[in-house]
């Protein structure tokens, strides 16, 4: 059975494809600011995968420790399992991994999957009239609205593959931003 998480925070952080880079996680958390207590991670957390080069700052043990510290300090990390996430990753991280993450936030429905089966995510999101559908996997940031659903890919914090640099996203009641890890706005969509 699919659990639905209730998120009460005024702002949520959204990222994907950290691929073992501790400095990228640290920069994303700094970008989100201290008011972010919930981070939605669309998968590929600790391992870089056989098709990717080793990212800068590749220290999966340090990243695992930082995620666990955030969790133990009262933060919440909801993770959708990525194609590079292995059972050993799930053993060292305290937050749970789920193939599908479903949440509510300020009256909005959120659905998150890694994105390696995007047609399934799209079908589920549109059928269930989800407000925000989050994926990663492609390492390309995008914000697209279809039939009332906003589809968000925050890009990759470590190995971007589009024209945009390393990025993450956050949402407030006003809308959704994709930002560079240096703090520049790349994309914005109002609710």
Comma- or semicolon-separated keywords:
single chain; 191 residues; alpha/beta; Purple Acid Phosphatase, chain A, domain 2; 6-stranded mixed beta sheet; globular
Brief overview:
The protein is an alpha/beta fold. It has helices at 22-32, 60-72, 87-92, 118-127; strands spanning 4-7, 12-15, 38-41, 76-80, 97-98, 101-105, 108-112, 132-134, 142-146, 149-153, 167-171, 175-180, 185-190. A hairpin with a 4-residue loop joins β12 and β13 (185-190).
Shape: globular
Portion in beta strands: 25-35%
Category from helices, strands and their pairing: alpha/beta
The H-and-E topology, N to C, reads as EEHEHEHEEEHEEEEEE
Q: Describe the largest sheet.
A: 7 strands, mixed
Into which percent range does the helicity of residues fall?
Answer: 10-25%
Report Rg: 15 Å
What is the C-level CATH assignment? Alpha Beta
Question: How many structurally independent domains?
Answer: 1
Give an overview of the whole structure.
- The protein is α/β, with parallel strands linked by helices and 191 residues long.
- It has a single domain, classed as 4-Layer Sandwich (Purple Acid Phosphatase, chain A, domain 2).
- The protein is 21% helix and 31% strand.
- It contains 4 helices and 13 strands.
- The protein has helices spanning 22-32, 60-72, 87-92, 118-127, and strands at residues 4-7, 12-15, 38-41, 76-80, 97-98, 101-105, 108-112, 132-134, 142-146, 149-153, 167-171, 175-180, 185-190.
- A 7-stranded mixed beta sheet has the order 5-4-3-2-11-12-13, covered by helices on one side. It has a 6-stranded mixed beta sheet with strand order 1-6-7-8-10-9, covered by helices on one side.
- Helix 1 packs parallel to helix 2.
- It starts with a strand and ends with a strand.
- 42% of the residues are buried.
- The model has no long low-confidence stretch (mean pLDDT 96).
